[in-house]
Amino acid sequence: MASSSSGIVAGLTAAAVATVGFLAWQASATVPARPGGARPSIPPAASQAPRDTRNSTALPAGSGTGQRVVYSVDDNRVWLVGSDGTVRRTFTVQPGTVDPEPGTYAVTSRSNAITGTDGLPVEHVVRFTSVGGVTIGFSAAVREPTRAPDRTLRTGGIREKRADGDAMWSFATIGRRVVVIR
Known about the structure:
5-stranded mixed β-sheet, 4-stranded mixed β-sheet
């Protein structure tokens, strides 16, 4: 009797997993379009792609193809990737308090110079999505902050060093793909 019970449990578990997978797929088809018509789409196997732990600057496998910006939320790192798939530049960033979901987006707007949500002057702002009313994008602080960021503010600015911000500004024009991975 014990062996037949375990077979039933295994069958019910498999059916439950299949049902959840189907419902997740069905729900993804009803996700509303984001501003600019972009819908987040998770790159195939991006979240499960093995990382090259010998070289943390290596472009993660499964981060897409072609010309794109790749942003790793977990590693706080950006890769600017050319149309031939070679990394043109990689650098670390300081994220805001609100992270974008993994997926593929497009640059929707840019500003040469504004004041960030934290009150600091920033330049070369490249926006690609919003989460709960918070705009998410890359930017560079014009001057070094004199105090630690207020982590209680809801901010979507992903801060770069000024030289990296210059490179992003030149590379990430309107419509450029931005692939967010874990």
